[in-house]
Amino acid sequence: MRIITGILKGRQINIPNTLNVRPTAARTKEGLFSILEARKYIRSTNILDLFAGSGNLGFEAISRGADKVLFVDSDRRNIDHIEEVGREFEVSDRIRTVVTPVEKFLEGMPLPYDIIFCDPPYDYPLMHKMIEMIVSDGWLAENGWLILEHDKRHDFTDHPHCAYYKEYGRTHVSIFLAEKGIEF
């Protein structure tokens, strides 16, 4: 995996075989960041990367000017890898990491984020509850976005906070806004 553009453009994120991750495909990542670049200002934003895995999305956001990224993942090996990549890319001062299950993290005190990336396992049983917690409990800043990767078994197009939906092969992306019914 490589960083597409920005200050880290072309840098590779090497993923050891020992990590149990499903990184966002290059085509999906390019499409997702094209939407962000066209419709939302990413510079100086605070990002939350849930189910962070390899850190692919969070590091792309840093490369494009995000101020800070908090990576959350339940697997210590994934977080160790993200911290190592942060040191390698010399952006450790712009990242924080938390090792905990996402559902436990979301039970904590909410801090509003401008953009929340969320790439849970496709069979994650708490998907709907997690979305409700994020959009209703103060995790999204005013004009904040929740960007959720999921598979075709989940359809959020009727959700009152869902403002955008796009298919990228077997990966589907839904974008939820902090406020209901806002034009995308």
The structural class is alpha/beta
Rounded mean pLDDT score = 92
Q: Give the CA-CA distance, first to last residue.
A: 29 Å
| Beta-strand residue percentage | 25-35%
Q: Which regions have little confidence, pLDDT < 50, spanning 5+ residues?
A: none
Secondary-structure element sequence?
HEHEHEHEHEEE
Helix content: 25-40%
- Major beta-sheet overview: 7 strands, mixed
Radius of gyration: 15 Å
* Strand line-up in the sheet with most strands: 3-2-1-4-5-7-6
Q: Shape from CA axes?
A: globular
How many beta-strand runs? 7
Oligomer: single chain
Helical stretch tally:
5
Descriptive notes:
The chain is an alpha/beta fold. Helix content is 27%, strand content 26%. It has helices spanning 26-39, 56-63, 76-88, 102-106, 127-136; strands spanning 46-50, 68-73, 95-99, 113-118, 140-150, 162-168, 171-177. A seven-stranded mixed β-sheet has the order 3-2-1-4-5-7-6, with helices on both faces. α2 links the parallel β1 and β2 (68-73).
What would a concise description of this structure say?
The chain is α/β, with parallel strands linked by helices and 184 residues long. The chain has helices at 26-39, 56-63, 76-88, 102-106, 127-136, and strands at 46-50, 68-73, 95-99, 113-118, 140-150, 162-168, 171-177.
Properties at a glance:
single chain; 184 residues; alpha/beta; seven-stranded mixed sheet; 5 helices; 7 strands; 27% helix; globular
